[in-house]
């Protein structure tokens, strides 16, 4: 940790606290260095327990192992919270003498379903190994023995190594380091490790309702997701809401010979193309009436934070093969601050070798609507539905009857999931400022602060069910292949994550 | 055969010829009635020989059987014409003393690939049986014995029973009936039974080149396809051309998280929707520059013929569940006289249960362009390509390189098959008038005369390679399920087809 001009200016601004935080973090780092082989041993064991979210038997083994990790660290009240049909939550808490406020640390221990065949040769989802770099970028597997020194540039490969067992490891070991270094937490601490995030946190609301008083806190810290593309530490004060709408437009009842009936029988593929095409203009602006009307404007503080986020566009363009982003020169971070409408999928008839000269019977599309603060899922769906209605469509929620087909020229089936709203914590709340100060004390560069991530999590339930504030602190490397093959964590991110959480446990 | 007012007016117009043709047809009918059990026996045997077009071993058995059918009828020069990699053509000819002109009768004996599992219980593609009506409309299988009388309302079920072994049966038995009834053909007669129509007549041009002098004739009569929806006999003077264009629009190189990158990364699904949507206006009119410019206008005679075709739209609307045809009130037959542009298929990402919140990497579409007289496949493709270019697309014929992706914001891959042009024989040619008069003599209602069918066949090759005229005389019932499960022929259509062909063999 070197003192540079930036850190010095922070120290001058916040005074002695920052300097004392600095010395505390050095203790945490020292503890980690002395114990990193034990930490890695436990991490390897944890990643080796299969945890595909629908494999409840194995998921339960993970829960038991993590509960023991808490008990081993003196959290003797660790327990499994249960709800019917749900994978359990691993819970524990620590009352800190003199503390008046409570932070609850969230991570999840279940992983995405995985297809081992897609992994690079030598890598297996539940047989974690160290690699020098991603295999597809020329890395190789390290012949690691438990007594070997660990290079922080190495990566540990395995399903859920990043998403989100890294979160569990950072939280548990930060607490351990704190206690063993004789540093006192400033808040009461609770641990909440979910077991079904990867299947949509189906029972999260049930858990929050059932264990409302046990889960009472001032702040939820969500340890999940990757840090900024630049590699810098990041604090995200919100997530977007999300809802999917499935559209089906109907053509003739049977597939028709395109020569005998084409240009007389309505073509549902063309109808879908024309319906979707009009939803956005050439600048990527959604043309649906009122689409942006209820967006809560960014505060001055939020705007300022955004303006300081380093540009990622040149690197992304190269990486992704994008010459002209949708919306032109608008930075990605500005797009993230707006509600979106995207086509996730579109299908009508067949393409490629299966294509036939027919007028298809239907065309389908799946829309993805991301919501920001101020939007409401039901209102957002209504805006899209009203747009479709204004285009002359008869709207139904099931396949049309013969009578409806005879009556209406343009028929569309619309269905959607429940969806959920966005969540955003104001960056200028005192507790938000405390979080920023604590994490800032661990690094020598300005943190990346974002009012909201681009992605979605149902974090609004914490606010709604418990009245708690929520802030997300991502732990792992950007290129960790979350949800995909060859998932991995760069070890330096694990070490830095422990420091981050330890700093939060001592924040003022 | 009853003489009604219409037929009387035809007789008054054309005089004695019609009355003599009438009496000749009665002889054909009498011969057929006396021999129908033998005809059916042979038909059942022919349909029982599997003939899926890619099953060359079995296709060859069909060819041998049909050659023997010709020999049995005194056409001793019957032979198999060959070309490398091609299923053979069954050929034979009859020189008629005094005849100065030649008609060549075309049918094909190969069938579409078939999935027996899709057929109704009791029906098997290559075990032909009689049914009282389509099984799906409440028909049942008849326990037929070879000596039973045959009800002309019955249908014979089996793959290729309609498409196009019915054509072979009608041609061969018309000639047989003519000779055995001691009626003399007025033209030299040639027989041409193709063995690979169902895989695109891949070697037809090779055969026409190799056997150019053998195949010389004044007129090709194509016996293929279903008669008009009204059940009336039909003469079609042309077919449309056809070409398919496959389009692929590229998005980011990897599928991207729609929350983290949506509305920044270009969405290829939306780009495809916007490209396709603009190709047609709300009236079904293709907006592509010059799309209709080179269409050869219909002659007065053709316009008149079209105006007399009975309306099929009310029945089709009910049958197909169509409330508002594309192009509004324009009759189907008018749409068929125009070049078309249709979307056969469209795909991007996934829909339904497989849908994911991603920005897909590409969007694909398959276009079907039907061509009419005056159009040219290369010109038609160029019109569409120019339209796409004018929308700002960089056009390639392969997946883009990284360099192209960096350089061009809108990239599309366009590929297409060879395609072929339309064919149309003017209805007022003397030989066309002879055909009309001959077939009209077999029925008491006005024939359906159409300048062109909606579908496509590469009939232009006969004109191009041999300088011959081509007229299509469809043989079978409209609801014969050609290319599909439960294919069948209504026996009355077989009997009427024999009369039709016999009338053509004696036309003036």
UniProtKB/TrEMBL annotation, chains A, B:
Pfam families: M20_dimer (PF07687), Peptidase_M20 (PF01546). Residues 1-21 form the signal peptide. Keywords: Hydrolase, Metal-binding, Protease, Signal. One of its GO terms (biological process) is proteolysis. The keyword Transferase does not apply. GO terms for molecular function: metal ion binding; peptidase activity. This is Peptidase M20 dimerisation domain-containing protein.
């Amino acid at each position: 940790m070197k003192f540079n001009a930036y850190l010095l200016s922070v120290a001058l601004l916040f005074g002695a606290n920052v300097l004392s935080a600095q010395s505390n973090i050095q203790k945490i780092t020292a503890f980690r260095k002395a114990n990193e082989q034990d930490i890695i041993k436990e991490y390897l064991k944890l990643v080796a327990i299969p945890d595909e979210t629908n494999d409840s038997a194995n998921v339960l083994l993970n829960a038991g192992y993590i509960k023991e990790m808490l008990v081993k660290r003196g959290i003797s009240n660790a327990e499994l919270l249960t709800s019917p049909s749900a994978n359990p939550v691993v819970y524990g808490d620590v009352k800190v003498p003199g503390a008046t406020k409570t932070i609850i640390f969230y991570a999840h221990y279940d992983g995405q379903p995985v297809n081992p065949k897609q992994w690079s040769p030598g890598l297996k989802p539940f047989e974690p190994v160290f690699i020098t770099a991603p295999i597809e970028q020329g890395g190789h597997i390290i012949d690691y023995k438990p007594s070997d020194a660990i290079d922080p540039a190495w990566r540990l490969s395995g399903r859920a190594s990043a998403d989100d067992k890294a979160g569990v490891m950072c939280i548990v070991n930060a607490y351990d380091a704190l206690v063993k270094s004789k540093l006192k937490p400033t808040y009461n601490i609770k641990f909440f490790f979910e077991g079904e995030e990867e299947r949509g946190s189906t029972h999260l609301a049930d858990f929050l309702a059932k264990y409302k008083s046990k889960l009472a806190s001032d702040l939820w810290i969500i340890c999940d997701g990757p840090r900024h593309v630049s590699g810098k530490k990041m604090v995200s004060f919100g997530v977007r809401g999300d809802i999917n709408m499935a559209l089906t437009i109907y053509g003739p009842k049977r597939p028709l010979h395109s020569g005998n009936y084409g240009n007389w029988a309505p073509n549902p593929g063309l109808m879908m193309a024309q319906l979707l095409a009009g939803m956005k203009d050439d600048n990527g602006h959604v043309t649906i009436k009122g689409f942006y009307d209820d967006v809560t404007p960014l505060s001055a503080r939020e705007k300022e934070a955004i303006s300081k986020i380093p540009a990622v566009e040149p690197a992304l363009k190269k990486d992704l093969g994008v010459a002209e982003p949708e919306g032109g020169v608008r930075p990605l971070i500005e797009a993230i601050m707006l509600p979106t409408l995207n086509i996730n999928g579109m299908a009508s008839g067949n393409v490629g070798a299966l294509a036939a000269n027919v007028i298809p019977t239907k065309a389908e599309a799946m829309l993805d609507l991301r919501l920001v603060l101020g939007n409401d899922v039901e209102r957002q769906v209504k805006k899209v539905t009203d747009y479709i209605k204004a285009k002359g469509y008869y709207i139904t929620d099931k396949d049309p009857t013969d009578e409806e087909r005879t009556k209406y020229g343009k028929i569309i089936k619309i269905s959607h999931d429940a969806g959920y709203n966005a969540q955003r914590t104001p960056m200028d709340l005192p507790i938000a400022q405390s979080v920023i100060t604590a994490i800032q004390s661990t690094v020598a560069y300005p943190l990346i602060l974002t009012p909201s991530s681009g992605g979605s999590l149902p974090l609004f339930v914490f606010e709604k069910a418990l009245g708690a504030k929520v802030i997300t602190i991502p732990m792992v490397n950007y290129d960790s292949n979350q949800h995909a093959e060859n998932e991995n964590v760069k070890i330096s991110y694990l070490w830095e994550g422990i420091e981050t959480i330890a700093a939060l446990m001592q924040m003022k």
